[in-house]
Amino acid sequence: MADKIILTGDRPTGKLHVGHYVGSLRRRVVLQNSGEYKRTMVMIADAQALTDNFDNPEKVRQNIIEVALDYLSVGLDPEKSVLFIQSQIPELTELTFFYSDLVTVARLQRNPTVKNEIKLRNFEADIPVGFFTYPISQAADITAFKATTVPVGEDQLPMIEQTREIVRKFNSIYAPVLVEPEALIPSDAASRRLPGTDGKAKMSKSLGNCIYLSDDADTVAARIKTMYTDPEHLRVSDPGHLEGNTVFTYLEAFSRPEHFERYLPEYASLDELKAHYTRGGLGDVKVKKFLTAVMQEELEPIRKRRKEYERDIPAVYEILKKGSERAREIAAETLHEVKDAMRINYFEDSELIREQAERYRKAAE
Length: 365
Ligand code: ATP
Ligand code: MG
Hints:
This protein is mainly alpha-helical.
């Protein structure tokens, strides 16, 4: 128990949205507060963001503070979690370089997440090498801190699998230094991959179909008003479909029994609401109103806390600086062990030098 370690992170390519929240952020806060982990490491992956935003470093630079504010506002606590910036830990680059020896081009090409993202970014013709190999750098991020547990959305599973392979290969060739991590994904499908407000498969900064944690109450309400539902559900009396109905998917991810008591007491549960919808006689407007109430309740304290942190931006940078220093210490320890295992510790190995000196002396005699 006491040796369990968490690592997660996000790319600073925009503010964080409710997909990040249900997929990973809210779980991190629970784990951070559970007392079951020796350490919680939370990384702003700026170097990874640059792999496909290399021509727009200002975007990455401006979004570091946004992601940090989002972290603090959801309840990640710098007293309990190490919040740090990837590029400030040069040890990660060194690890990436060594791990690159253990991964084939064919294996990277098979990674379904990378495949998908290459398509999304129209990179088919000319993929930057850095982008193509980011799963290796992600393995460095995870293993540098000996993370056992990585709370992520579903799209990250292939990354964790790739990391596990690298760990096994490293440990079997060199020495058992690295720890095989496990992904921790949400138990419900809606939270594992929250769709966009447009009904598209994934809410994603790159697709512009997001509700951001920092959106004000009016924006959230407006986003839900125009949210994709069932295009065949024209009259209230029509039977409605749940399949692909974004409003119900969001209710899966966000609603809890107490929300029904508070805002919709005529239904005992989401199942009852669904049953009425499919039977006919329940209008989209009513369901959307309920979702709005549920989401505002969840987001209001987050917005409030954000406002407080926004008042002292230098203090937020100080948190990141301290966190980065701490992260660097830990990563340096792992790198040291890795180099020992790989036998590239020449200057520290007095036995190596002594033995060779002896050998050459004898040969000269
Ligand atoms: P980008 O489009 O720049 O890749 P993104 O929105 O996919 O941005 P990431 O920073 O790549 O965000 O992902 C950070 C974390 O949030 C990962 O653990 C990922 O699995 C999770 N996540 C991202 N989008 C969703 C979503 N729609 N539903 C559930 N989890 C998500
Ligand atoms: Mg992503």
